[in-house]
Amino acid sequence: MRRWRLVLGGGDADGTGCALEGADAQMDAALAAVYDQDGREGQSRREGGLGASAPRVARWLGDIRTYFPSTVVQVMQKDAIERLNLTRLLLEPEMLEAVEPDVHLVGTLLALNRVMPEQARESARAVVRKVVAELERRLAQRTRAAVTGALDRSARTHRPRRVSDIDWDRTIRANLKNYLPERNTVVPSRLVGYARRQRSVQREVVLCIDQSGSMAASVVYSSVFGAVLASMRSLKTSLVVFDTAVVDLTEQLHDPVELLFGTQLGGGTDINRAIAYSQGLITRPADSIFILISDLYEGGVRAEMLRRVAAMTQAGVQVIVLLALSDEGAPFYDHDNAAALAAMGVPAFACTPDAFPDLMAAAIERRDLARWAERHTGA
């Protein structure tokens, strides 16, 4: 009954008849500050108990960190920012020092970047730096391992040096004509194996990121992955962000924090223009992977956008369209454009950050990405 009382929020109609005391009462007050309705039928507006008072917000931030785990704290902070319009308070350094850093907070700070007062900038950078460091710790090693393994496997040789280098699936397929029915076996006359790692650039990767406001989390994750990929000598990685303009941030890939502050969330979208610029970065189409991260709401010339994608695939570029690169579930996107891309063999799907390393491996090995998406995303 105590748990139901906390869920329902109290009042005569909750039916629990349960009174809260001590820490439970403090927890209930912290929840009520964000989630209690104003009681008027049909209204979705919340009347929070935080107002626009920085001290009250600071106390509330302390309370929720006391009573809830960090994952819940991040959700409550995000809801408070959206429901109670606390973005102005995030421009104050003492507020930034009190909040629990997460991807959504970074997205909010990037959106406020152009209006942020100078005294808050260093605190904002510290928040972004902490989140980026945590994401790199979580994702970098897995990404490097997956990409390196895929590059090794994608390089073929007919003289593998050791048994572990033999690609048995391809070797059997190549020698089916040598099947001996009486022995129920295949006698391989030609081996197919994985070549040893090369030091030269083996793949060109272009990340093309939509920086419209709805793509905030995707921008953060994409920038981190871009920095990780750029650190690998076997890849030549470029990163482009766009709204109605296109900005090449490749030179800042060594520092994902600076890269993120080079983005500008919000504004319109011209995907066609971004793809046109990205085409100019590709010098080896057959060895290139182009990753467009966008919800596909095109404000430019749709027919030209589709024509450019078709031209890239015909030239041999591995084209991947991610509707989102985040943990936020099913994204909003332009279904007509996604269907048009799928019709030309370019599946469009959302991808979680944890699945992205395997996606890169699948792309490098030129596996069927539509099948990969069905298996990993249920698309």
- Runs in which pLDDT lies below 50 for 5 or more consecutive residues are 39-48
Beta-strand residue percentage: 5-15%
What is the N-to-C order of secondary-structure elements (H for helix, E for strand)? HHHHHHHEHEEEEHEEHHEHEHEHH
CATH architecture of the largest domain: 3-Layer(aba) Sandwich
- The overall pLDDT, averaged over residues, is 84
The CATH class of the largest domain is identified as: Alpha Beta
The radius of gyration is 25 Å
CA-CA gap between termini: 40 Å
Number of helices: 15
Please state the oligomeric state of the protein chains shown.
single chain
Residue share in helix: 40-55%
Going across the major beta sheet, what is the strand order? Answer: 7-6-5-8-9-10
For the biggest sheet, the summary is: 6 strands, mixed
Kindly give the count of domains.
Answer: 3
Explained architecture:
By secondary structure, the protein is α/β, with parallel strands linked by helices. It has 3 domains: 112 residues, no CATH class; 189 residues, von Willebrand factor, type A domain (Rossmann fold), CATH 3.40.50.410; 39 residues, no CATH class. The chain has 15 helices and 10 strands. The strands form 3 sheets. The chain has a 6-stranded mixed beta sheet with strand order 7-6-5-8-9-10. It has a two-stranded antiparallel sheet with strand order 1-4. A two-stranded antiparallel sheet has the order 2-3. Strand 9, helix 13 and strand 10 form a beta-alpha-beta unit. Helix 11 runs parallel beside helix 12. The longest helix is centred in the middle third of the chain and has 37 residues. The radius of gyration is 25 Å and the shape is globular. The two termini are 40 Å apart. About 3% of the residues have low confidence.
